[in-house]
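User: Structure tokens for this complex, please. No commentary.
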Amino acid sequence: MTLKYSFKTALNGLKTHKSRSVLTILGIVIGIMAIILVMSLGQGAQDLILGQIQGQVSSSVIEIAPGRQPKGPTDFLSMFSDSLKQKDLEALMKKSNVPHAEKIMPLVFGSESAVYGSETYQATLYGMTDAAGTMYNVYPGDGRFITEEDVKSYADVVVLGSKVKEELFGNDSAVGQKIKIKGRNFNVVGILASKGQGMIISFDDTVIVPYTTAQRYILGIKYFNHIIIQADSDANVPETVNDIKITLRNSHNITDPAKDDFNVNSQADALKMVSTITDALTLFLAAIATISLLVGGIGIMNIMLVSVTERTREIGLRKALGATESDVLTQFLLEAVILTAIGGIIGIFLGASLSFLTSLVLSNVLATNWAFTFPVGAAILGLGVAALVGLIFGLYPARQASRKSPIEALRYE
Amino acid sequence: MALIEVSRLEKIYADDGVMTPAVRGVTFEVQKGEFVAIMGPSGSGKSTLLHVLGFLDRQTAGSYRFSGKTIDDYSSKELARVRNKEMGFVFQTFNLLARINVLENVKLPLLYSGIKESLWDHMAKEAIEAVGLSHRLEHESAKLSGGEKQRVAIARALVLNPQVIFADEPTGNLDSKSGQAIMETLQHLNEEHGHTVILITHETYTAEHAQRIIHILDGKIDSDEKVDRRRKSNEFSK
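Assistant:
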């Protein structure tokens, strides 16, 4: 029998049992739909998270934190140590030590209340330099940012996050006004442009002062919470990370790298970690979705077995009229594969549509820029898996059908 | 050379260790172009014999030669090919596929024939015309009368112009008038087109349309005689 006619025969077989075929397809549709939905939403979430990190922090940024790389719960305590000092900063600034460091910025932070008249707001305080602009993509929407001069002169100037400004000043102009932090007067020199909600790192809630001022007059510390270094290019990041480690070990007299009292993380590492986590989550969900596909496959086998029993006489007749075993096998196998293929296509379509709707809702309701991505790989995989499910779960019933003796099949009541 | 040569043929069914002999050593020949009726009461083994003759089942012992070749020489694929090309089957219960139309039912053997698809319609229509059902081409077969169904089955048996037509109680489920028409068609095919016909029946009246009657009793041949006064279907149709 020609393949074309086998196809027609199989299609006819399915058409004559419409409702049964539809129910069988449903199992596959749900399985494939779940896979596509999970993969597509997972991809969307990952793109969103990575996009936010990449969009806000330059990918050539390297962060040095005190304490060693945390390896267990107790290690987190060491994160608050004071191992990063002025002499480290000076060592790192030497071109001979870290040749590819373009900008270096010490960072101190704490939680402080900002007071204006009768208004008080608890904000995150950052002590930074003018380098923060390119590193973290923060720019004033009004006024100016902190300058090199401010840092050198321990100036009492402050740049407000948009939310802090709103809480303290409402709609009034804030630049030129004075606010109090820890009882000390600060000139408001700039307001940051709002970055909106949904961002992972938001400066809307912060007040930024020169790090020198913050150390001496607000926090009363001599160490740094972080040192941030921007490499001159993304390609030089790994080399720079290495240079930083060597410089700091020399500065701290450490010979055994296992005893490092600091840790160095590049933005690239952070991105890698985030995508590893989201990948793992997506895979986990896809594995669950696969189980529903398996259930769908068993449903197909069940239906095909019923179909074979129910059509025993038809099989007998076809054999009496000259069908070979392989003709019958092909017919029933094709029926199963057509069922799963149709289910697969519908599932991909529904899964993609649902994912698209979800991305619309997420981007509108939550005001994020969640982008819809059609998971081509998952679609191809889904279709392949569907066809495979049809083949595997269709094979047993089809073999049962093809091996029937024609006369016993014809006599079957 | 005879078309069908059967020698000491036996068929024993073994079911749960219980041996039930259905055919117990029969020997006969059928020449090309003959019209033979195999008669016997229920359980005499006549249907079992037909199944072996029609390659639907294999014998337990003895030999069966079809067209000079013994059945044991055929692989299951070759058996399927012979059933397809050389044999046509007409069953008591018609065995049409209920939900497809007359034309598609008659086309069934063509699916497995290796003949080009472009010729199928023409061949099937010719066979349907031969049984006088051209006006029913598009009818769903489930909606036909019993007589019409059996004529579709005959058209299906004819479509590949086989050497021999096996008819297993073809009139058993029909009223006498429809049965008459079926016998008329079979006789016509035998006389005008030279098809060998092997008819299974338990009615003497139906059997007498054949040229020769083989009586089977308890799996053995009781008698094998020519029909002296052969019935012509049209004698009774009036």
